[in-house]
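Sample entry (285 residues):
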Amino acid sequence: MMHSSKTKYSLGVVLFSMLFAVEPQSLWAEEQNDIHPYLTEKFFVDLGAYFPDRKVQLQVDGTLTAPNEPINFETEFGLDKSDQTFSLNFGWRFGEKWELGAQYFEVSGGRDTVLEEDIEWGNVVFEQGSTALVGTDFSILRIFFGREIKSSERYRFGIGAGFHWLEMGASIEGDIIIAGGGNRFASESVSISAPLPNLGVWYMYSMSPNWAFKARVDWLDVDVGDYAGSLLNASIGVNYQIVEHVGVGLNYNYLDLDGSVQKSNWRGDLEISYEGPYVDLSIYW
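Predicted structure, serialized as C-alpha cells:
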C-alpha cells in the first residue's frame, strides 16, 4: 500500500521537528532544577477530547453475490467526516532509561438512509428504496515501550517498540424491500480485531518550568493474521503547567491506516485516517 503525499508530508514535519530539537539551544536562563514535570515526574495522565477530521474508505466484498463490486461506506452512504471523541494518554517512567506509554480512543459513525441502489451482501439483497441504518466503528489501543538513547535535564529522546490493538467494523441493518413486494428486517456486519506491532521514536523538551514540547512517531508495515498493510501514528504538541501537578495541553494527532483484510466474511480493503487537534487536562506525579 502506498501512503499519500499528505501522509508523507505529515510524517516529514514531525520527524524534522523531533530531529531538529534533539540538541536545542536554550533561550531561557532558569536554574537546572526548573524543569517541566513531564521530564521529572514518574507518571502522567492526559484526559481530553480529540477533534479529528476523518476519512473512511471501507470496501467489503467477502460474501457478496457480486464479489467484484465492493461496498465503499464513505462514498456510498455519505457518512460524517468529523468526529469528537474522548481520548486518554498515559505515561510511566521506570528505571533510569525506560518508559511505558498508552493511548486509547474510540469513534463510531452511522446514519439512517434510503438506499439509492441495490446493495448485495451475504445472502441479503438490500434493494433500492430500502430504509437502512449504516455505520462504522473504530477503536485503537496503543501500548509502547521506549528507552532513552539521548537525554539531558532539559530533553529526552528515545526509541522503542509496541503494538496497536485495532478493532474495526461496519454494518447495515433495516427493513428491506423483498422482490415481489413486502419487506422484512435484515442485518449484515463485518469486523476485524488484531494486534499490530510497531516501531517508534519519541521526544520531550522542557522549554521552561511551565512549558514542554512533545513529539512522537510510530509506524509499521506488516502482515499479521487477517490484516496486511501499513500504519502511521504521529503526534506533536505543547503542555503548560498551570499549578503544581496539573497542566493543559494542545496537540495535533495524525493516524493513517491502509491495508487489506482476508477473512471468511470480509475480503476487501480499508483506508482510514484521523487527523486533528487534541486538547487535554494533564496530571503528573
